[in-house]
Amino acid sequence: MRHRILKTLITAAVCLIAAGCSSTKPVPSSENFGNLFIGAWVGGPEEVPQPTVANVEAFEKLQNRHLDVINHFVLWQYNDWAWTKPYVEMAKSRGSIMMITWMPQPYTAQDILDGKTDAYLDDFAKGVKEFGAEIWLRPLHESNGDWYTWGTGKDPANNAEEKVAAAFRHIVERFRAQGATNAKWIWTTNAGSSAGATLTGSYPGDDYVDYTSIDGYNWGTAQNWSHWQSFSEVFKPAYDALSAYDKPMFLAEFSCTEHGGSKGEWFKNLFEVLPTEFPKIKGLVIFSQSKSYEADWGVDTSEDALNAWKNGIAASK
After folding, report:
1. Residues 120-146 pLDDT 10s
2. DSSP characters over 273-315
3. What's the rounded Cα separation, in Å, for the pair 161 and 14?
4. Rounded alpha-carbon distances, angstroms, from residue 107 to 172, 216, 281
5. Whole-angstrom distance, CA of residue 52 vs CA of residue 300
6. Per-residue pLDDT tens over the stretch 209-233
7. pLDDT for 32
């Protein structure tokens, strides 16, 4: 989501606490998900939060529900498979699937097509294959925006929508060549598009996608350019566009601010309209980080917000 994670992760050098990693829980599989799977970027109290055992356990206790999916942001420029592996192993040990939001910073789609990242991709693919269990990879997310180096709105020449789609296919093909068939591929559009981009123009094709997903936020009045939006106002256009594909759909990043309205009521409304207006959505992966410099995205910024979230996910099992 824009520069939020870039600012956080560029200087990250975190040791993963191994406590709890000896669990004998079954190997996680999306085939075992219930009616609505729940995931999160869990945030944490640190200046540079990571999905450590402590932070994951704290979040699960906070919401009183196990996380089916744990989101982690991995930057190609700084984070290789060796850095990523402990987090993936931790998720597996807890019976959760790790979703890697895989950010090609500082590369463009054209750079990927030119083979500049092939060595990195091949090394990561070998690690994923060796890992063996199901892992979700979400590269080139929000390419219809203008805030990432692979965004169509940021660099239209090197990130034309057809180039982004081709770059996605290139990434998948590098993994297939290494035999990393345990990777599931997540394609993500942002709920709103920048000038020159569309919601689905970078879709790489059904053969390269396991899940479609949407990133979207109710910014409320947290920014001078934003206003309060209902859940439906944020997500309905992208949901309708992605409904054209015969793929399971979920929200890969979302949250709501307390500025300009009631976050508790927003969460409550989410769970009310989800089964009727958004029946194809199979999962919710919330972005919960109150320390974000952009807005107060945490689920626990108020008692009303936390209770609405807890009640909603409890009823959706």
Report:
1. 999 999 999 999 999 999 999 999 999
2. HHHHH-TTEEEEEEE--TT-SS----TTSSHHHHHHHHHHHHH
3. 35
4. 17, 23, 31
5. 19
6. 999 999 999 999 999 999 999 999 9
7. 82
* pTM of the shown model: 0.93
What's the rounded Cα separation, in Å, for the pair 149 and 154?
7
Query: Helix H segments across the chain?
Result: 4-9, 53-63, 81-93, 109-113, 118-131, 161-178, 231-242, 263-277, 303-315
Report the length, in residues, of the chain.
317
Place of tokens 């990195």: 120
| Alpha-carbon distances, residue 191 vs 121, 216, 240, 315 (angstroms) | 28, 5, 11, 26
Q: Of 290, 292, 316, nearest to 58 (Cα)?
A: 290
4 phi and psi, to 5 degrees? -55, -50
**What CATH code is assigned to 4-315?**
3.20.20.80
